[in-house]
Specification:
Elements (H helix, E strand, L loop, with lengths): L2 E3 L10 E4 L10 E4 L2 E3 L2 E3 L13 E6 L3 E2 L1 E3 L5 E3 L2 E11 L6 E8 L28 E7 L12 E6 L4 E6 L6 E11 L3 E8 L5 E7 L9 E10 L4 E12 L6 H48 L6 E2 L2 H7 L8 E5 L2 E8 L2 E8 L4 H14 L10 E7 L2 E7 L7 H4 L14 H21 L3 E3 L8 E3 L5 E3 L6 E3 L5 E3 L14 H4 L1 E3 H17 L16 H10 L17 H14 L10 H8 L46
Parallel strand pairs: 1-9, 20-24
Antiparallel strand pairs: 2-19, 3-6, 4-5, 5-19, 6-18, 7-18, 8-9, 10-15, 10-19, 11-12, 11-18, 12-13, 13-14, 15-16, 16-17, 21-22, 22-23, 23-25, 24-25, 26-29, 27-28, 30-31
Length: 640
């Protein structure tokens, strides 16, 4: 029985691939077994919890199989040859570290059970030395786990066993944390390995005669395995290219079909080229946004978890209609259960461009925030064009369902007592103060309203929906947009002229929220005869002018409230809604009023007219905390 080695064929097929690095969008070209991609590298020993690196094993393969050899009708074997180059980075996580990493060729992609520690993910105690293992490995051993090991820093060639048929000590230090380049060549008869530090000359360190057809099936998979024990290390592959000769019988016919398909595709491209070009540019921009988002998220010490799509499908019963909590312009929210924890999953509409923008803004903004009065973002998912956000589930839903009367039925879902309403106002104020003053970068929410205030099991307020939120540097005072963003009825009058979102426009929306919570009325469509009363702010100011401001109290409270406290909070709401942005209180002053630490700001009985540009207040009238001291710490408040 003869063996023939064909020369290398340099062509693009299933036997040639190149990964200069490993971006997440190329994940589909790899098969992972307890390994994963992180920071554009294969983490061969990869702990999903991110908390430990010990007692792990993993494998990572190129997705498609490689034809290593074939037998013709005359019983002659034709062997393929190949050359592969990869860059490793192995860094000790303990002192000393262990165990090591290997380049593997195998007929079985499954990771052997109990292959951590000394087994390097190659075999285990049962398959070690057995032909059923179907594996040949070039090992890079960083720990002397067996007496047969020459030392704790060597290369070896292993056949169906953890014990090497040949091993050589290395002059490069494998677990130094430095990048090491390796080239492995097989000419059909001999396996040769070259090793050196990255960007330096590679030295031949090992060569061994071997007929791979004696140990491996015709179709094999190429990749990497690694393991750790109580002695741990990170085992990373930073780049990888592979070139192999194509000995498939149908190769020529395949190329005929490729030429035909390419010709057809080219004809189609001529007809729709311009449209596809524009669409491709749009897709690339979206992809770049998502790459920047993932990079930004990974910078946080408390980054939200990245979920798998299958996890969220299972948690929500495959997004069952019976688990639907609500629907908006961005998409739909579903209730789910994950690890015995109730969650809310926001599924962004695939066809909504604005939904994708909201998704990116929400993850990158709220992902870095921690405060007891903010809805907690647990995680996110971007997979198969699905955009999903995972939040803590709020059992009492959104505030609007509790304070507004249903226009169809004339009923509300529940009636909140006065103490609860005051608590909700105070909790929302604390959240907004934190966004304006307690973050590394100031956050403008831009969409404060009752439907974005969620209520937990104790009816405590949690501010959510950061789809329109934007961060600004401390030295800046505003965020400018080409399109006016927000919800009618909550938007300060100056925003329609300037297109600018500021802390003052957030304060205005908070003032409208106060009036809603106290009165139980929506911000527009008031049922007053005078057409002047076309908003809740106009309506309240008219009551204030007549000296009847307490008439704004929600009738469902049945008079059960402190009139003094009610009046103080309503006046505070009007102050926040002052047409002159310079006359609005800062959130620091709002909190001081709510805590009874300072008097409520005075507001005129006649609603001032909106004038632009707005006149700044005099020195004596200015609220020093509004501009200069928006960044001044407020000792009684902190994020959680």
């Amino acid at each position: 029985m003869g063996i023939t080695a064909f020369p290398h064929v340099n062509c693009k097929n299933l036997h040639d691939f190149n990964f200069p690095d490993f971006p997440y969008q190329r994940t589909g070209e790899l098969t992972m077994n307890d390994s994963g991609l992180l920071k554009n590298a294969i983490q061969v020993t990869y702990d999903l919890s991110g908390n430990r690196m010990d007692n792990l094993s993993g494998r990572a393969f190129y997705r498609d199989s490689f034809t290593l050899w074939r037998r013709n009708s005359k019983n002659v074997i034709t062997a393929a040859n190949f050359s592969t180059t990869f860059t490793l980075n192995i860094a000790n996580q303990s002192n000393p570290g262990g165990e090591g990493l290997a380049f593997i060729i195998t007929g079985k992609r499954d990771l052997p059970e109990n292959s951590e520690g000394q087994w390097l993910g190659i075999v285990n105690s049962t398959t070690n030395g057995s032909s059923e293992a179907q594996i040949v490995a070039v090992e890079f051993d960083t720990r002397k786990s067996f007496s047969q090991d020459v030392d704790d820093n060597h290369i070896g060639l292993n056949v169906n066993s953890i014990f090497s048929v040949d091993q050589v000590p290395l002059s490069v230090e494998l677990s130094s944390g430095k990048n090491i380049t390796v080239r492995v060549e097989y000419d059909g008869k001999n396996m040769t390995a070259f090793v050196g530090y990255e960007f330096m000359k590679l030295n031949q360190v090992l060569t061994q005669p071997i007929d791979l057809s004696q140990y491996l099936p015709e179709k094999v998979f190429v990749g990497f395995s690694a393991s750790t024990s109580n002695f741990s290390q990170s085992n990373c592959v930073l780049s990888w290219e592979f070139h192999g000769s194509d000995i498939d019988k149908r190769r020529n016919l395949l190329w005929v079909w490729i030429v035909v398909v390419v010709a057809v595709v080219l004809l189609l491209l001529i007809g729709v080229g311009f449209c596809l070009y524009k669409r491709r540019r749009h897709e690339l921009r979206e992809l770049e946004d998502l790459q920047r988002m993932e990079s930004h998220i990974n910078d946080f010490n408390l980054a939200p978890k990245k979920f798998k799509l299958r996890e969220l499908k299972k948690a929500t019963g495959r997004f069952s209609p019976k688990n639907k909590l609500g629907k908006g312009g961005f998409g739909t929210v579903y209730k789910g259960t994950w690890r015995n924890r109730e969650i809310a999953v926001k599924r962004v509409s695939e066809t909504s461009r604005q939904g994708k923008q909201e998704f990116i803004a929400e993850v990158t903004t709220i992902g870095s925030l921690r405060h007891k009065n903010l809805v907690k973002l647990i995680g996110w998912c971007y997979e198969r064009h699905e955009l999903l956000l995972v939040y803590d589930y709020m059992p009492n839903g959104s505030l609007d369902k509790c304070i507004f009367v249903d226009e169809k039925t004339g009923l509300g879902e529940s009636t909140l007592n006065w103490e609860t309403r005051v608590s909700i106002i105070h909790g929302t104020a604390q959240a907004l103060y934190y966004l304006h003053n307690g973050c590394e970068k100031r956050v403008l929410h831009r969409d404060i309203k009752a439907s974005n205030i969620m209520l937990d099991s104790e009816f405590k307020a949690r501010l959510g929906d950061f789809g329109l939120a934007r961060t600004i540097q401390d030295q800046k005072t505003h965020h400018s947009t080409n399109e006016i963003a927000g919800t009618p009825g909550y938007m300060a009058p100056e925003i329609f002229l300037t297109g600018r979102a500021t802390v003052e426009t957030d304060v205005y929306a908070f003032g409208v929220l106060i009036l809603e919570v106290v009165s139980g009325r929506k911000p527009g469509n008031q049922s007053e005869q005078n057409s002047y009363n076309n908003s809740i702010v106009h309506w309240l100011w008219e009551l204030h002018r007549k000296g009847r401001i307490l008439d704004a109290a929600d009738p469902r409270l049945e008079g059960t409230f402190s009139e003094e406290e009610m009046e103080r909070i309503l006046i505070l709401g009007l102050a926040c809604c002052h047409p002159n942005l310079h006359q609005r209180p800062s959130m620091k002053l709002v909190l001081q009023v709510l805590l009874g630490e300072t008097a409520v700001p005075e507001v005129p009985t006649e609603r001032p007219s909106f004038v632009w540009p707005a006149m700044p207040p005099s020195f004596n009238e200015s609220d020093n905390s509004l501009a200069g001291s928006q960044l001044t710490p407020f000792s009684q408040l902190s994020g959680r």
